[in-house]
C-alpha cells in the first residue's frame, strides 16, 4: 500500500478484510518487501512530489516495468498513466498504463457524483461508483483495455497486464470486487 498521501487507510482496511497482509510503503526498502501495490486516491501532484522527495519514484517505475501488480484509484490512476493531461506544472507520473488521463475532468461544477457501472469483468451486479474530482481516461492506447465506461462513452477503468486503474473509489463504498480482482492478479504474479 503506497502511503505517501491520500486515502490509503481505507484501502488497507478493504485489503485486510479480504485477508491480505498489508504493509505501508513510504521508502524504497519497503517497496522490495511487497508482492503488489495499491496507489490510493488523494492529490496526484502532491503524491508525485513526495515520491520524488523520498527517492521512491524511480524504484516505483522500475518495479512497474518489472511486472509488479499495481492498482491505482483516482490520483493513483493518474500516477499510473503514461500521459497526464491538465497536470500541474512539471507534474510527472510513474507510467505503465498506455493511456492519457485528464485530471479533474468533470470540472468544478461536477466535482463529485455517483453512478452505477456495468463491468463485465466483475460479474452481473453493477458497480456503484463514487467520483471525487476524478480523472477520465481520454485515450486508451493499444496496450491497455477499457473495463468500464460512463453512459457518454468516456472510459473510467482500465487494465493492462498486472496493472489496474479506476477513476472512482471502490474503497469507500463497500465495493470489494476490484480489490478481489486485483488480489487475484497479485497471487497469479507471485506464483
Ligand atoms: N484531482 C485529484 C488529482 O489530480 C484526484 C482526486 C482523487 O484522488 N479523489 O490527483
UniProtKB/TrEMBL annotation:
Keywords from the UniProt entry: Glutamine amidotransferase, Hydrolase, Lyase, Pyridoxal phosphate
Protein name: Pyridoxal 5'-phosphate synthase subunit PdxT
UniProt record similarity statement: Belongs to the glutaminase PdxT/SNO family.
Active site feature: 74 (nucleophile), 169 (charge relay system), 171 (charge relay system)
Pathway: Cofactor biosynthesis; pyridoxal 5'-phosphate biosynthesis
Function of the protein: Catalyzes the hydrolysis of glutamine to glutamate and ammonia as part of the biosynthesis of pyridoxal 5'-phosphate. The resulting ammonia molecule is channeled to the active site of PdxS.
InterPro entries: Class_I_gatase-like, PdxT/SNO, PdxT/SNO_CS
EC nos: 4.3.3.6, 3.5.1.2
Highest taxon listed in the record's lineage: Bacteria
Organism: Cryobacterium flavum
Pfam families: SNO
NCBIfam families: PLP_synth_Pdx2
Catalyses which reaction(s): aldehydo-D-ribose 5-phosphate + D-glyceraldehyde 3-phosphate + L-glutamine = pyridoxal 5'-phosphate + L-glutamate + phosphate + 3 H2O + H(+); L-glutamine + H2O = L-glutamate + NH4(+)
Any one GO biological process: L-glutamine catabolic process
MF terms in GO: glutaminase activity; pyridoxal 5'-phosphate synthase (glutamine hydrolysing) activity
Cellular compartments per GO CC: cytosol; glutaminase complex
Binding site for L-glutamine: 42-44, 103, 132-133
Quaternary structure (record): In the presence of PdxS, forms a dodecamer of heterodimers. Only shows activity in the heterodimer.
